[in-house]
Hints:
Elements: H1 9-28, H2 30-50, H3 58-80, H4 87-115, H5 136-144, E1 158-159, E2 162-163, H6 164-184
Antiparallel strand pairs: 1-2
Helix pairs in contact: 2-3, 3-4, 4-6
GO biological process, one term: protein folding
Subcellular location: Membrane
GO molecular function, one term: protein-disulfide reductase activity
Amino acid sequence: MQAGLFADPTQVYIFTMRLRSLFSWVFAQWPAIALATSLSMLAIAHGFERFGGLAPCPLCLHQREVYWIAAIVAGLALVVRRMQDHVFASRAMNLLLALAFLSGAVVAGFHMGVEYKWWPGLAECGGVGASANKMPTDLLAALSGPMKVVRCDEPAWVFLGLSMAGWNFLISLKLMVYSGLSVLFPKGLIAAPPVIVTEKTDV
């Protein structure tokens, strides 16, 4: 009878080394991955707005700002990597990425709490205080057309029980963890010692 995939310790070792190689590559190429991910998140957000008709609330816009900052930091990190002896500078840029994604997780988590009514939103959410600084002519112009107030406590899109803020919270946490690990391993993981594979012969 043929044994399972993980019954042989050699197969387990090979599988583990493949995962190790994958994570090593991710850590070594993290600035490029962080840049591509940040731009992808921005493209998805603008796609929902333009083609899905989901207007962003103020907290949604703050979450986009985090990705713009992360994209700029990641771009600078790619430039730093071309310098000689860039390990310390690369660690510093990855640390900045970790802080940026941490702030994104905080904003997204706060937004998620507002949606679940765990705490109140900001004054700018739901149009509170939005008309305080408007001139009478601006108010007349706004009243003459369709007026749509984008509230922060009403999820515009939900998938698998999570709103866009909830998914962004999980994604930002994941990006923060990878950025933090890239601080420790800016050139990837240290190569593991090779394993000698011996074939068994059935007697």
